[in-house]
Amino acid sequence: MASITAKLVKELRDKTSVGMMDAKKALVATDGDMDKAVDFLREKGIAKAEKKSGNVAANGLAHITVDGNVAAITEINSETDFVATNDRFKNLVNTITDLIAANKPADLDAAMALTNDKGQSINDLIVEQTQVTSEKTTLRRFTVLEKADGDVFGAYLHNGGQIAALVELEGADESVAKNVAMHVAAVNPEFVSRDEIPAERLDHEREVLKKEALNEGKPEKIVEKMVEGRLRKFLSEISLADQEFVMDSDQTVSQYVASKGGKLKKFVRYEVGEGIEKKVENFEDEVNSQING
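The structure assignment produced for this chain is given below.
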């Protein structure tokens, strides 16, 4: 049997907002499996669907460059927001994103080898930045999109580049695409449409919702209708096409785009630091270590 640590209990509580004892019981019942424990709590009606989001801890900026039929979105990290907000770092981020858009590298290694007009590689520029600031700087990730002539890109940076959203539409125009990019930044969908959602993900959600409804004591003859209704709500939360458009809740995003003569094709959303867990320093311990060091 897995050891149920306080850390595991806290992680489950953070994800589901349940009480400590409920979290511990769920972990014991599922032998410490975090995902199964979340399902266990949902089935018991104790916790609703978890909205998964990585630990947002790292600093830096996300950026977008659109160059004709090519667009690049990047995330470059620094150790502190002080460095991330200075002009030197911002210029580095712009340079890296421009080079990636112009050259369309296949992976991070290829991107790091790209050179500017002075013959300096992205790797060289990052090393130089690190030497100047005494802070580690990294090109964490990037995505390059290429569109057809009749398609349009929409780009939006939130809070100076803490969130970047890049959207590609078939038809419509750039203002429509930008509005959708703003929606993506705000709502954070997982898929363009329900057609992209893996069948096993839907089957799993349907099974959890069924158990949840039965455990609520609902008659089995109406459970199926309840499940389908709740499944539609689930789809509207994760599918961009099915979400209520933030600028007009009377229509979905796909309806808004269609009303402008367009069709959703792709989107990419970067939030700085998502999925990166940063060591949390205890300020008192840090002060004591400096006094006693």
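Interim note for the steering committee: The radius of gyration is 23 Å. Confidence is low (pLDDT under 50) at residues 48-57, 279-283.
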